[in-house]
Amino acid sequence: MSSISIINSIKNNRMVKKRGLSFKNLLKNNILSLIIFIGILLIGVVIAGNVSVQNGKVSIDDDLTVYNNKLFVDVSEGRVGIGTSTPSELLNVYGTGGSGGASILINSTGGSPYTRGSLQIINSGGNVAGRGIGIFTFNNNETANATWFIGNPRDFSAPYSDAFIIGRKGGSSMDFSSSERGASSLMHLSSEGDLSIGTTGGGARLTLYKNTNGTILKLQDSDGLCNHNPESSSEIVSCSSDVSLKENIVNVNKKALWDKYNGLVVREYNIISSGDKAIGVIAQEVAQTNPELVTSEKVSIYEEVYSENYGSAVLEKTGENEILLVEQPNPWELVGLIQDLKAENEELKTELCLKDSSYIFC
Fold first, then answer.
1. Hey, which bits of 45-146 come out as E strands?
2. Is residue 311 in some structural domain?
3. Taking the complete model, does pTM exceed 0.70, yes or no?
4. C-beta of residue 317 within 8 angstroms of C-beta of residue 159
C-alpha cells in the first residue's frame, strides 16, 4: 500500500468517527494501517497500479506521464519524450524556447577541458564507414535546403567513407558568421563552390574583401612574406627584403642572366580547356635549355558521379596526371636585364655621337 492509501485510510477513519461507528472498529482500522506502514518500512516495497518501488529501484509496467507531458516514457517502444507525448525516436526533445533559446543545454564544471560540457556521438556498430555518424538537422517549416549534416557521411566510397563533412542538402550556400542569426557573414561559400571572405557576393572562386584601403592578402613561409594591396588600376605587391634576412650579397652576374633567358623560346598557343589564346613557353622545351626552371607535380582527376546517399552529384577521384610546371621569371632579374640594356644603349649612343653629333639623341 502506498502513502496515498494510508492517507485515504486515515480519512476513512475520520468519516467512520463522524458516522458514529464504534471505537472498536476505529481502533481496528488504525491498527491495520499501522501494520501496513510498518511493513512498507521493513520490506521496502511500494506497489501502486503499474509502478513499484523495491530496494530503491522503480519499475514501470505502463507508460509514464509527468506533469502534463513535460516528461513522457513510452514503455512499449522504449522511447522518452521531453515536452511531447509522442516521441518518434529513443529521445525526442520538443522545446518552445524563444529567440536564441536552446532545447538542450550541456554544461559541466568538472572534468578535463576537452571533456567538460561535451557531447559525444559514438557509433558502436561493426561498419562505421557505411552507416555514417554525425549531427543531422532539418527545419520542417522551410525547404529541403535547410537540411544540414555534420560528421562522417553514409557512403562507402573513398574519400567520403573516412572524412569529416559539413554539408547542406539542396545545393544552397553556407555562411560562417559572428552573429547567432547569421546577419554578419565573415565567410561565405556559394552553392557553386565560390569562397568569399568579408563579403557574400564574390563571383570568383576566391574573393577577399576589405572595406578599407590596405593589405588584403598576406602570404608567408620560412623565407619571408608578401603583402598584396589592390589599387584602381594595378596591384601593389610588397615582399620582405630586409638585409637581416640575407647573406653573401654580391652584384648580379648580368651575363649569367642573359644566358638564362636567351635560350627560352616564347610561343603563342590556345588553351585546350577554354580555347583562350595565350603567350608563354612549353615546359618540355624549357626543360631542354633551363631544367632548373621546370618541376613536376601529380594532379588528381575528378569526375562527377551521382550519389544515392546524397541525392546529388559528387566529385569522385578517378586517377592522376603528372604535369610539368615552369617557374616564372623573377621580376628583379628582369629589372637587372633592363638596366644592363640601358647601360649598353648609353655606350652605343656615346660612340655614335662621337662619330656624328647630328643624331637627335646626341
1. 45-48, 51-54, 57-60, 64-66, 71-74, 79-82, 91-93, 133-137
2. yes
3. no
4. yes
Q: Which of 208, 225, 206 is nearest to 216 (CA)?
A: 208
Q: At what angle do helices 23-43 and 3-18 cross, to 10 degrees?
A: 170
Residue 305 domain-assigned?
A: yes
Domain that holds residue 42: 3-60
Asked, for residue 318, whether it belongs to a domain, the answer is: yes
Q: What is the pLDDT along the chain (362 residues), one digit of tens a residue?
A: 444 554 455 555 555 445 545 555 555 555 555 555 555 554 455 454 566 767 767 677 777 777 777 788 888 888 888 888 888 888 888 876 555 556 677 666 666 655 555 666 666 655 444 446 677 776 665 555 556 777 776 555 555 556 677 777 666 788 888 776 666 788 888 888 899 998 887 788 999 998 889 999 999 999 999 999 999 889 999 999 999 999 999 999 999 999 989 989 999 999 998 899 999 999 999 999 999 999 999 988 878 777 665 556 767 778 888 999 999 999 999 999 999 999 999 999 999 999 888 888 88
Cα separation, 224 vs 287, whole angstroms: 28
Q: In whole angstroms, give the CA distance from residue 260 to residue 281.
A: 14
Query: Do 308 and 289 fall into the same domain?
Result: yes
Beta bridge partners of 57: 54
Whether 189 and 162 map to the same domain: the answer is no
How far is 201 from 185, CA to CA, in rounded Å? 11
